[in-house]
């Protein structure tokens, strides 16, 4: 059963990576495509708006992955209610780990695999957001007095 769970988990993780890469590239392209547009307000507010849009796009990707894991748990018969499966998935994905909802012994390995997946995907989102911040601040000194 361990090998079956490992195979199911790794396949799901590969699907999640594909989803996250698509959403991350979508958000980075959004920022780069709109980087030369004149802002409605000051440069800081315009950059913040673009950064927020990128964050929302990537969080939608993470949310979709949480729903994917929840659907998997439902399909495997671990839960009878999608709401509970999605809740359990969100707790796993974010590594929150309440422990108030637990899967059967046969499928417990999928919980840590999802947590590992979540850490990696949230790390990818964080790295992309940092890259976007660097792109937005390129050529704009943070502190003019430091020059």
UniProtKB/TrEMBL annotation:
<feature type="transmembrane region" description="Helical">
    <location>
        <begin position="115"/>
        <end position="133"/>
    </location>
</feature>
<dbReference type="GO" id="GO:0034220">
    <property type="term" value="P:monoatomic ion transmembrane transport"/>
</dbReference>
<keyword id="KW-0472">Membrane</keyword>
<keyword id="KW-1133">Transmembrane helix</keyword>
<protein>
    <submittedName>
        <fullName>Two pore domain potassium channel family protein</fullName>
    </submittedName>
</protein>
<keyword id="KW-0813">Transport</keyword>
<feature type="transmembrane region" description="Helical">
    <location>
        <begin position="52"/>
        <end position="76"/>
    </location>
</feature>
<dbReference type="Pfam" id="PF07885">
    <property type="entry name" value="Ion_trans_2"/>
</dbReference>
<feature type="domain" description="Potassium channel">
    <location>
        <begin position="66"/>
        <end position="129"/>
    </location>
</feature>
<dbReference type="InterPro" id="IPR013099">
    <property type="entry name" value="K_chnl_dom"/>
</dbReference>
<keyword id="KW-0812">Transmembrane</keyword>
<keyword id="KW-0406">Ion transport</keyword>
<keyword id="KW-0407">Ion channel</keyword>
<feature type="transmembrane region" description="Helical">
    <location>
        <begin position="6"/>
        <end position="32"/>
    </location>
</feature>
């Amino acid at each position: 059963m361990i090998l079956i769970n490992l195979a199911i988990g790794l396949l799901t993780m590969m699907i999640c990576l594909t989803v996250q890469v698509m959403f991350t590239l979508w958000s980075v392209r959004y920022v780069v495509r709109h980087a030369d547009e004149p802002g409605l307000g000051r440069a800081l507010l315009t950059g913040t708006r673009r950064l927020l849009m990128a964050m929302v796009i990537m969080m939608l990707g993470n949310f979709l992955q949480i729903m994917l894991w929840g659907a998997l748990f439902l399909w495997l018969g671990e839960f009878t209610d999608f709401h509970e499966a999605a809740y359990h998935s969100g707790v796993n994905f974010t590594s929150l780990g309440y422990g108030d909802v637990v899967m059967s012994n046969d499928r417990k390995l999928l919980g840590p695999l999802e947590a590992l997946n979540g850490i990696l995907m949230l790390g990818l989102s964080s790295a992309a957001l940092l890259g976007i911040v660097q792109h937005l601040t390129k050529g704009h000194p943070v502190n003019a007095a430091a020059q």
